[in-house]
């Protein structure tokens, strides 16, 4: 009983919530919730689970992943995101791509993206990951060729059947290791934040190797620390900060993101010339 009381104080509801609000510690908090569930009330657990779902898909995703024992890192990444999609792990009723892909949360980027494309004079567009096209289908991009790519094969097949034509192609691609098509603009929204730091670096190398002209990607410029995670989890990342260190983007579009009580109101699309990233040669672990 004494030991239980000591643990209850050490891993109290308040301490866990504090850890969840400190994004440098949320992985630790997520890991200990299940272990110390016995010391928390049902109401406290429900409150914690509501916060954790912002960052971590259900534990069943990782349980199944561990049992499958994938043979390579690329296999592991594919399995994680296929299971997240199959289980609607982000619990969003509008889009299996998550709450960031709803029409209400993409209003600003839907308005800004066609203007950006015209400003960059982009004629070819790679949307990776394209997800379920919940919001992108409503955007008049004005490009000659749209390529939607995703690591989830079921999504690619569904999009190809529903939206594919001679000007709109869909491919199964892993941004961390597959050869990317050379295009005028790579649009990488709500992707890198779900990858490990090493996978993010590999993705950036891969984008550089594609010799595309521009990269437009999600970044959180007011965040100063980039914690590492397991693939499939999430945290906001600032691509200008270590361990990535990209140069300042030439364009920054704030998305006016209002989910999570406005905690991530700095969520933005940064735009870089891919040629400017070639000097960014951070080490791979």
Radius of gyration: 20 Å
Chain-averaged pLDDT: 82
Order of helices and strands: HHHHHHHEEHEEHEEE
Strand content: 5-15%
- What is the global morphology? globular
- Widest β-sheet, arrangement of strands: 3-2-1-4-5-7-6
Q: Report the count of strand segments.
A: 7
The helix/strand class is alpha/beta
Tell me the number of helical segments per DSSP (H or I, 4 or more residues long): 9
Largest β-sheet summary: 7 strands, mixed
CATH architecture of the largest domain: 3-Layer(aba) Sandwich
Share in helix: 25-40%
Could you describe the 3D structure shown?
The chain is of the alpha/beta class. The chain folds into two domains: 51 residues, no CATH class; 179 residues, 3-Layer(aba) Sandwich (Rossmann fold), CATH 3.40.50.150. 35% of the residues lie in helices and 12% in strands. It contains nine helices and seven strands, in the order αααααααββαββαβββ. Strands 3-2-1-4-5-7-6 form a seven-stranded mixed β-sheet, covered by helices on one side. α2 runs antiparallel to α3 and α2 packs parallel to α4. It is globular. The protein starts with a helix and ends in a 12-residue tail after the last strand. The N terminus is likely disordered.
